[in-house]
Automatic annotation (TrEMBL):
<protein>
    <recommendedName>
        <fullName>Hemerythrin-like domain-containing protein</fullName>
    </recommendedName>
</protein>
<keyword id="KW-0813">Transport</keyword>
<keyword id="KW-0561">Oxygen transport</keyword>
<dbReference type="InterPro" id="IPR012312">
    <property type="entry name" value="Hemerythrin-like"/>
</dbReference>
<comment type="similarity">
    <text>Belongs to the hemerythrin family.</text>
</comment>
<dbReference type="InterPro" id="IPR035938">
    <property type="entry name" value="Hemerythrin-like_sf"/>
</dbReference>
<dbReference type="InterPro" id="IPR012827">
    <property type="entry name" value="Hemerythrin_metal-bd"/>
</dbReference>
<dbReference type="InterPro" id="IPR050669">
    <property type="entry name" value="Hemerythrin"/>
</dbReference>
<feature type="domain" description="Hemerythrin-like">
    <location>
        <begin position="18"/>
        <end position="133"/>
    </location>
</feature>
<dbReference type="InterPro" id="IPR016131">
    <property type="entry name" value="Haemerythrin_Fe_BS"/>
</dbReference>
<keyword id="KW-0408">Iron</keyword>
<keyword id="KW-0479">Metal-binding</keyword>
<dbReference type="Pfam" id="PF01814">
    <property type="entry name" value="Hemerythrin"/>
</dbReference>
Amino acid sequence: MSTTRNSAGFSPECEVSIPEIDEQHATFFDMIERIGTVADDLYRPLDDDAVDEALDIMAEIREHAQAHFGTEEGYMQEVDYPGLDDHRTAHERFLDDIARLEGELLNGSAVPPIKVRTFLTESCRGHILSMDKPFGQFYNKNK
Ligand SMILES: [Fe+2]
């Protein structure tokens, strides 16, 4: 049975079976969902106030991501995970993507929030399923 709290976007298939990491992933999806609350129509570019709100949320997502990646990489070091370097590269790429989205929002290049939310949700899900889950299996076998 799942012990992870319910969270939008966090489905049972996303569980990596390391409770601290699952909790942090659920928080990610909650933060990403908040992008959808900055405007009534997610398909239209944001006005200036909504851009400010979206940027605040993006800054929170970036800070959470940095802390979370540190946690995850710590678990990897604990068990000498052979995939650590590749995994670290994927984490850096995700942070680059966030910085790029922040830049697009900041210079008003008319990004609709649905695009930001969908991109982040899919990046997180894809990363969790393809990289974090295999690590979770390795960790639980080798801890
Ligand atoms: Fe990861």
